[in-house]
Predict the 3D structure of the following.
Amino acid sequence: MNEDNSHREGIYIYCLIDFKEGEPEKNFGPLGLGQRGDELRSLSYRDVAAVISNSPIKKYPVSRENCLGHQQAVEAVMKEGFTALPVRYCTIAEDEEQVRKILKRDHERFKDLLRKMQNKVELGLKAIFDEKLIYQDILAKNQEIRLWKEKLTNKPPEKTYHQRIEVGRMVEAALNAEKEKAKTVALRTLKGLAEDYVVADNYGERMLLNASFLVDRNREPEIDKKVDELNESFEQRVKLKYVGGMPPFNFVCMEIDLDVKGVELDAAGR
């Protein structure tokens, strides 16, 4: 997409949804990307629709604000009860006719994916450990480390350098073991309730798990309860940050081929 096209108007595609054939198009409000107040709306072909808004044909910067705007548009659609297939950020067609041709060309593929993702949502879970509390727990449980710490407490650091290094290694190994144990427990508890899950890279030294789960909407209350139980079992040593009901960006993100040469529509746009 060339920058010199930015003065032209196009159609931004946010996601794909199931749609009742013959129903009036749906308006989701002024949620279009770019803060112009463009209406977020459906554009259907038979029983599949793209959720779109008017947009300049340009390459939107990959900023937190823009990515969040794209995500919030898809979330607004899902809040209306639709199954949504998120489309790759900054997918912009020339016009509505091009969008309809895409829907016609890929109709069966889109329908198949919509069936697979029906009633599915994404849940995000981040686990953050409290190093001080886990350290206290290690001292309480590990007699060898505790005795070594007590032995070295009143001795000159310069005369116990190697012993202190060894104790530090023991503490680090115990700390890593506790973190891995907490991560394993959290994953084992939740992945059995999910259709699928992915584990992303951690960020920050205190994070021990950054995972997303694909679940059926009907199981959300059950998973909410499990997360509460996990939080209680960790006794503040590990704190869980949990977000539910999100679009399944980590499990499906449609890359759409905008080239529709050879695809024809009839007079009714079919």
